[in-house]
């Protein structure tokens, strides 16, 4: 087994909240390989599932969908022989051309539970505020014996000024039987078609031509690009949970949910085949009256519930047919994204322009059923997903336009990481209590660990707010991805640490995540303040810098003083300390610093009063 290796240079760059193209490419390659491993696990789990869980008809339909997907992939294969498959060119995600369950494409044995049931990697199955699940596992944490994190568990890192976690209300582990799991660093590279260069080695650095072409040295077909979309991760985990269900009173409900999950793959295959120019006629199924065609749009049927929709594709035109209703004609747009129809029942998918000239558009996805965790947000300070109207899309575009010019004063590396890591944006509604007098005064944002590359946010009020959101959330993305590749510490999940940006005690890993993102913001706003000539903008940047720097300074001793850090974790935290100390070379104005210090004192006093007995 070839394990991912994190060079010292990459660890140093990431510890500084930075990351050059090669380092970011390392994270992206590992996450993409894990996503392909999940896809392989779903295919194998379908084969191994009890007939009472996954019927023969459902299995046959998935085979048909996979065949359509492979037909689409053959239309425009990667330049390199084998592409994302095996060296012998076996197929997508290492799946044999003879079918998803035969030939050289079988998933690695260590990715299966007893009896052949595929399971997911616990490190990539721990989401949300990191290491907050009761399992004891978490990114950068070595899970204890028998521990397995919920594959659909808490799913969002919270806004820096307010806690918030998405959680699945029906928490069930896909590997509830014993300690069958893949460890945080045990991805079987090449076994599932890890990306390699034409020379056979690792892929080169990340390209700045867009997230869709993030891996230099490999030409990805549209099919393989879409299989690496962020929402394929949560979809696969939903499937694994359903496929791992045991027969019993819940079997009927679980079977219906699994049927819906597998139907999504049929819609995905239909979209990719249409993009590749393959003609076909298939029957899909709308979910709760909505048929979502990923990256194209959604059809809202007049009937509620799960409604069959016949889809016919010919030469870039989709005809959607429903019994007793008028046909809907949808025309594919160029550029690999979006489709349009004159029918009011059709809602097209939208995307924002690329961050840089020549970079890929960034989908603004308010349609995909897997864009947020099942059940929606559970925390009272975090809002839920929202469908945008034209006015809201315009506000998103206004905040997004020129955002590169807002990021760049805070460091060119902030632009680099945004281009390399950001794959899509998910709109959220305004957070509770943030709207007054018809104006929205607050915002919330987050990332989902199982949806690497996706960023969730309410409508950013200004480009600067949007830029700060990107800086903040992409640090969570980087640190979570790094923690999938190595163990930074062995601290447990006990929530006992003070963090001035949260009212509640934090576990060590949550403290590390928050400190890391706040350190990046302190650095970003200091760099911005030093080059900004507009007095009001400069004062605002210094105020933000002072606050974030004082927050970091209040918790660094707890991070540094922990005996649970590994050798690599120690090097990582030492680099964070070096950045913090470097910030002192250009201090904020005294007034800004004094206000930030007073804020920290007040926050600590209130926290101590609430959480320290006898105080």
From TrEMBL:
InterPro entries registered for this protein in UniProt: AKG_HExxH
Spans annotated as Disordered: 101-183
Source superkingdom: Bacteria
Residue ranges, compositional bias (Low complexity): 103-123, 144-156
Protein name, UniProt field: HEXXH motif domain-containing protein
Organism for this UniProt entry: Streptomyces albiflavescens
């Amino acid at each position: 087994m070839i394990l991912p290796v994190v060079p010292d240079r990459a660890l140093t760059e990431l510890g500084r909240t930075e990351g050059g193209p090669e380092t970011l490419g390392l994270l992206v390659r590992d996450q993409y390989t894990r996503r392909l491993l999940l896809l392989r696990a779903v295919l194998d789990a379908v084969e191994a599932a009890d007939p009472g869980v996954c019927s023969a008809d459902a299995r046959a339909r998935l085979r048909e969908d996979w065949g359509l997907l492979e037909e689409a992939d053959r239309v425009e294969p990667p330049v390199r022989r084998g592409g994302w498959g095996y060296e012998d060119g076996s197929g997508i995600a290492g799946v044999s051309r003879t079918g998803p369950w035969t030939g050289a494409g079988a998933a690695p044995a260590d990715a299966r539970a007893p009896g052949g049931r595929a399971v997911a990697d616990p490190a990539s199955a721990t989401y949300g505020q990191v290491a907050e699940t009761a399992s004891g596992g978490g990114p950068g944490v070595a899970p204890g014996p028998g521990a397995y994190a919920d594959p659909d568990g808490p799913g969002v890192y919270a806004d820096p000024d307010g806690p918030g976690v998405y959680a699945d209300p029906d928490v069930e582990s896909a590997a509830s039987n014993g300690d069958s799991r893949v460890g945080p660093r045990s991805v079987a590279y090449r076994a599932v078609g890890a990306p390699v260069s034409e020379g056979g080695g690792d892929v080169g650095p990340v390209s700045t031509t867009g997230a869709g072409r993030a891996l230099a040295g490999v030409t990805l077909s549209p099919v393989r690009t879409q299989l690496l979309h962020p929402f394929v991760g949560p979809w696969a985990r939903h499937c694994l949970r359903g496929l791992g269900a045991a027969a019993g009173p819940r079997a009927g409900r679980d079977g219906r949910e699994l049927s819906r999950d597998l139907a999504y793959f049929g819609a995905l295959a239909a979209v990719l085949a249409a993009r590749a120019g393959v003609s076909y006629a298939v029957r899909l199924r709308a979910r709760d009256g909505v048929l979502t065609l990923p990256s194209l749009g959604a059809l809202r049927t007049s009937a509620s519930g799960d409604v069959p929709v016949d889809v016919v594709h010919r030469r870039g035109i989709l005809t959607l047919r429903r019994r007793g209703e008028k046909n809907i004609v949808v025309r594919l747009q160029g550029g690999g994204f979006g489709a349009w129809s004159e029918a009011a029942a059709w809602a097209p998918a939208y995307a924002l322009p690329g961050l840089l000239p020549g970079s890929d558009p960034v989908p603004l996805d308010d349609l995909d059923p897997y864009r947020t965790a099942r059940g929606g947000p559970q925390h009272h300070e975090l809002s839920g997903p929202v469908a945008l109207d034209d006015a809201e899309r315009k506000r998103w575009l206004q905040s997004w336009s020129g955002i590169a010019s807002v990021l760049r004063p805070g460091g060119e590396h902030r632009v680099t990481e945004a281009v390399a890591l950001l794959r899509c944006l998910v709109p959220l509604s305004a957070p509770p209590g943030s709207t007054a007098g018809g104006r929205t005064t607050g915002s919330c944002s987050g990332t989902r660990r199982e949806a690497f590359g996706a960023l969730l946010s309410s409508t950013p009020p200004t480009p600067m707010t949007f830029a700060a959101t990107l800086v903040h959330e992409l640090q969570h993305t980087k640190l979570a991805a790094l923690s999938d590749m190595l163990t930074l510490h062995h601290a447990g999940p006990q929530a006992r640490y003070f963090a001035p940006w949260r009212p509640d005690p934090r576990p060590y890993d949550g403290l590390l995540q928050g400190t890391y993102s706040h350190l990046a913001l302190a650095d970003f706003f200091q760099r911005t303040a030093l080059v900004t000539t507009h007095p009001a903008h400069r004062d605002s940047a210094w105020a933000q810098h002072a606050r974030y720097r004082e927050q970091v300074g209040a918790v660094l001793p707890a991070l540094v003083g922990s005996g649970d850090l590994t050798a690599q974790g120690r090097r990582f935290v030492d680099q964070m300390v070096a950045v913090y100390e470097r910030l002192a070379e250009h201090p904020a104005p005294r007034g800004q610093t004094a206000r930030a210090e007073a804020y920290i004192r007040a926050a600590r006093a209130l926290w101590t009063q609430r959480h320290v007995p006898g105080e």
